[in-house]
Write a structure and sequence with these properties.
By secondary structure, this protein is of the alpha+beta class. Helices cover 36% and strands 21% of the residues. The mean pLDDT is 94.
């Protein structure tokens, strides 16, 4: 495959593509997987000053896993390194094994996170962290430029799971923080894994801590996702875990995405702890009474800012994209600022005391500690965020590019730049606290809130987020935005027009 073909597989800091021909032609081919993994081994050799001895390989539940796993293992062993097949696991555990005496120099996770069943991908880790976007560019260029010959001394495949060790460390974290072996005794806590990789959390983390997990649903791995997409941002997924909590009369419900790097929750009353609520809860846990900076993505609410600042913290909004949020927290930390948490509204949460790794299971583990402590004090988990104010209206509308679009990224940039110039009227002003796209504040009469227009990290889409403190405010702002966007022939604003009609 040439570079033009391979670079289409880049998705932020990952490699992703169509891996099973259900509705689209396969783009993540055997050839591409093999070449990219060989390129990773070569990159490791140059950066380390010596060839890797062993590379760990794990995967989630996707239906294309066996095919791709075969190519990854072949590429690693053909290069001359041992391939440690860790089997079904979570993405965060594939990084954490590099911080343990597991004996691997790097790791590869086969996953496409929350994407549909026909997709798959590759995530790459070194002991320093996951590869970033520039690394992926280099990787794909290497894969396109090299002819990969079989090595003289091929490595071997070793079968060894790290997941039990990873889970044991989470169990010990809770026990140490709570000062007892079974701090969840008497508590019913259920998991909705959505048939992704997260079902392990019941048997390997919750039960050893004493929790009753009866009522948990969809724990069995199934890459066709027959019940709902494992994704805390999906409405059907959140409704599923909510129903499971209420049916089981559980104190807490947990939901993971496919590869367990994200999470959401539901409290005993069926109230979602997600998006701004999840960020507020994680912020209280991370700050623990100490002043510090919480870095989030750009679409978080004004109420969240007030909440974090009111607890002694400082809320900093940054660019959408979990790697952007994490990198900004790392940058501030390197400059001497105390940043205990970087978190995106999608559920990617990275704590400073956990290598700034976005880890859904670690986030839930910290929530379990808070639950146990709140119960002992005679309070509920939701009491920690009872002062969080919610907007009266909160909506997201996705604007797509139509068939006349020739370069959607350049066109999207031109739209946001023109909107910045247009947003200079008596009733609307550019927001001062924005790092991406265009965010516009509206006065009380014309919307009493704001909208944010930005480019999607991965797709040819412009998501628009609205937040208003008045009923009907989002419709007013959306109506104004419709008029501003009508003259762009490459935009399809049908969704926005429908929102205005229905709001």
């Amino acid at each position: 495959m040439n570079y033009e073909q391979l670079k289409k597989l880049k998705s932020g800091s990952d490699v992703r593509g169509v891996a099973t021909e259900l509705s689209s032609p396969v783009t993540l081919t055997d050839e591409a997987v093999y070449a990219i993994v060989r390129a990773f081994a070569e990159m490791l050799t140059e950066r380390r000053g010596g060839a890797p001895r062993a590379i760990a390989v794990g995967h989630d539940v996707r239906i294309s896993t066996d095919r791709i796993l075969k190519q990854v293992l072949n590429a690693v062993t053909d290069y001359g390194a041992d391939a440690v097949n860790c089997g079904l696991c979570s993405t965060p555990s594939m990084f954490m094994l590099l911080k343990s005496p597991f004996g691997c120099d790097a790791s590869i996770m086969i996953t496409a996170s929350h994407l549909p069943a026909d997709r798959n991908g590759l995530k790459f880790f070194t002991p320093e962290g996951g590869l970033d976007g520039k690394d992926i560019d280099e990787l794909l260029a290497r894969a396109a430029a090299k002819t990969h010959e079989r090595g003289k001394n091929p490595g071997k495949v070793i079968y060894r799971s790290y997941l039990p060790d990873y889970c044991a460390s989470l169990v010990e974290l809770v026990r140490g923080a709570c000062g007892e072996d079974r701090p969840l005794d008497g508590k019913r806590i259920i998991v909705d894994a959505g048939n992704g990789a997260g079902g392990f959390f019941c048997d390997l983390v919750l039960k050893p801590l004493g929790a009753d997990t009866q009522g948990s649903v969809f724990l069995e791995p199934d890459g066709t996702f027959p019940n709902h997409i494992p994704n805390p941002e999906d409405k059907a997924a959140m409704e599923s875990v909510k129903c499971a909590v209420l049916k089981a009369r559980a104190e807490l419900g947990i939901i993971f995405d496919t590869d367990v790097d994200r999470a959401g929750a539901v409290d005993a009353d069926g109230r979602e702890i997600n998006r701004n609520d999840l960020i507020a809860l994680a912020s209280v846990i991370a700050l623990d009474g100490r002043p510090g900076t919480i870095v989030t993505d750009s679409v978080t609410s004004d109420g969240l800012t007030e909440f974090i600042n009111g607890t002694g913290g400082k809320h900093v909004r940054f660019k959408r994209g979990y790697k952007n949020v994490i990198d900004e927290a790392k940058r501030r930390t390197a400059d001497g600022e105390y940043c205990p948490l970087a978190i995106e509204t999608s559920g990617h949460a990275a704590f400073a005391d956990n290598y700034f790794l976005d880890d859904g299971a670690y986030l839930v583990t910290r929530i379990l500690i808070a639950l146990a402590k709140q119960t002992k004090a005679g309070r509920s988990l939701s009491d920690l965020i009872k002062d969080l104010k919610h907007p009266v209206e909160e909506d997201e509308v996705r604007i797509s590019f139509n068939s006349s679009s020739k370069d959607f990224r350049a066109e999207g940039l031109s739209v946001t730049e023109e909107l910045k110039r247009a947003a200079d009227k008596d009733f609307m002003r550019l927001a001062p606290d924005n790092y991406e796209g265009v965010k516009v504040n509206f006065d009380r009469e014309h919307g009493d809130g704001w909208f944010l227009v930005r480019m999607s990290v991965h797709d040819p889409v412009m998501p628009v987020n609205f937040e208003s403190n008045s009923k009907g405010g989002n419709k007013k702002m959306a109506t104004c935005l419709c008029e501003m966007l009508r003259h762009y022939p490459f935009l399809d604003i049908t969704n926005l027009e429908n929102f205005v009609r229905k709001a």
